[in-house]
Amino acid sequence: MMLSNITVPLLGLVDTAVLGHLDNASYLAGVALSSTLFTSVFWLFGFLRMGTCGMTAQAVGQRNTIRILQLLLSSSWFAIATGALLILLQSLWIPFGLELLSGQATADVHLSQALQQDQQQVVNHAMLYADWRILGAPFVLLNYGIIGWFVGRQNTKVPLVMLISANLINILLDLVLVLYLGMGVEGVAIATLAADVSSVSIGLGFILNRYSSEFPLLSGWLPNWIVIKEMIQVNRYIFVRTGTLLLTFALFTSQGARLGETYLAANAVLLTFLLLISSALDGFAHGAEALVGEACGKRDHPYVMKVIKVSLLWSGASAILLFMAFGVGGDALIHLLTDLEAIQTLAHDYLLWLVFMPLIGTWCYTFDGVFIGATKVRAMQNVMLISTCGVFIPMLIIIDYADLPVEQANHGLWLGMMLFMFSRSLGMGLISGHYSKHRRWF
User: Fold this and answer.
1) Count of CB atoms within 10 A of residue 309's CB?
2) Which molecular function GO terms apply here (predicted)?
3) CA 129/CA 186 separation, integer angstroms
């Protein structure tokens, strides 16, 4: 599953690398802005992956094939309906979201005219990207449900094929549309849309090929409202948790935008490092989701404990490898992502935060998987709320009141992100210890 997950940031990494080699930072900044908005909105419905995975894994432990199929069907209907609604309402939320993220809603009235023009150019590129990206909404959400369902069934090969195929298509189209045909931001958006569609098509193909013999067990193709109600009960906490997480990253991006387009672009490059970290370490989290969920379905406490220990051990070892890799090759990756000297220099100044980030964040990623598999999602939500509202947002307030120079303010942003990760790891670690000691995982 780690190999499957590590392919995910390639979508953003290739986009960043292609745009980072164009002649103006506004291209990269605009796509970073729009991509953050879409990632935030789409991942609000990340419970379609997390909730579907945990509940499917428990159904596997109970050997309940009908429920396994009902979970796939219900999550798919929900994904299609929600994606269609996002497309219909795009004129309401996309302009507002981009304005909010760009910092224009709260920008200082004393900004120079040149900086205001730079911001408008960034927003224009962001809107062009959004016009294409929104069309993929149903496919992105379907992807969440399908991948969660396969992982819950402990079949990680199909998600690997889905994600690798999507990334290959994205890379090929990025090179053709952007570098060869000169389509710029529009080419990047079309490439990402095509990647999302191809991933869903491959996933559905595997379902029809491998599990069609189970379909007669279903009484129909309409969603099961009892199952949907159960999913809502579990997923409401994941929804709040995910929304809070995305608020943190949205505030981070918005604050960076207020520092100027060069800081916004440099932070976008460095966030690619964070995406690599989370995607690699989430591989162990996804494995823990499936195995802990199955163990909880069987009510096997010793096996839950074994999965937790092994997952923490391997994710910790992987975090050390990432720490060393970024320490040695971080500058090379920055130069790969952009050849704009101003962005390279600025990203280098803040690279050290990303070098140490795997050592701090690895624990929260792994515990996410454990809590989702056990459907202890309310506790996970509460830790996220405390980390955002009690740690990250106060850091932003301190930065504003301190009136720091921009270079120090950006260091403050990354310090806030580091403390946010540490708070999540500590909080879920303490709760996990309590559940383990008192045998309260199910």
Assistant:
1) 11
2) antiporter activity; xenobiotic transmembrane transporter activity
3) 6
Task: Give the position of tokens 């991948």.
Answer: 147
Q: At what angle do helices 113-133 and 261-298 cross, to 10 degrees?
A: 40
Q: Report the C-alpha gap between 337 and 21 in whole angstroms.
A: 8
CA atoms within 13 A on the CB side of 19: 31
For residue 46 the two structure tokens come to 């990340």
- What is the enclosing helix (H) or strand (E) of 2? helix 2-6
Helices (H), 338-405: 341-349, 351-373, 377-387, 393-402
- C-beta neighbour count of 395 within 10 angstroms: 19
Residue 193 exposure: Cα atoms within 13 Å on the Cβ side: 16
Angstrom distance (rounded) from CA 111 to CA 88: 35
Q: pLDDT tens across 77-125, in order?
A: 999 999 999 999 999 999 988 887 776 434 443 334 444 455 677 888 8
Torsion angle of alpha carbons 201, 206, 208, 212, nearest 10°?
A: -160
How many beta carbons lie within 10 A of that of residue 323, not counting itself? 19
How many of the other CB atoms lie within 10 Å of CB of 164?
A: 16
Question: pTM of the full predicted structure?
Answer: 0.78
SS3 105: coil
Q: Which of 370, 416, 422 is nearest to 396 (CA)?
A: 416
User: Would you give the DSSP letter of residue 405?
Assistant: -
* Cα gap 395→402, rounded to integer Å: 10
Instruction: Give yes or no for a contact between 227 and 71, defined as CB atoms under 8 angstroms apart.
Output: yes
In angstroms, the CA 129 to CA 45 distance is 21
Alpha carbons 47 and 237: distance in angstroms, whole number: 9
Residue by residue, DSSP assigns 21-88 as TSS-HHHHHHHHHHHHHHHHHHHTTTHHHHHHHHHHHHHHHTT-HHHHHHHHHHHHHHHHHHHHHHHH
Tokens at residue 385, please? 């709320």
Residue pointed to by tokens 């309310």: 378
Determine how many CB atoms are found less than 10 A away from the CB of residue 135: 16
pLDDT tens track for 309-365:
999 999 999 999 999 999 999 999 999 888 888 999 999 999 999 999 999 999 999
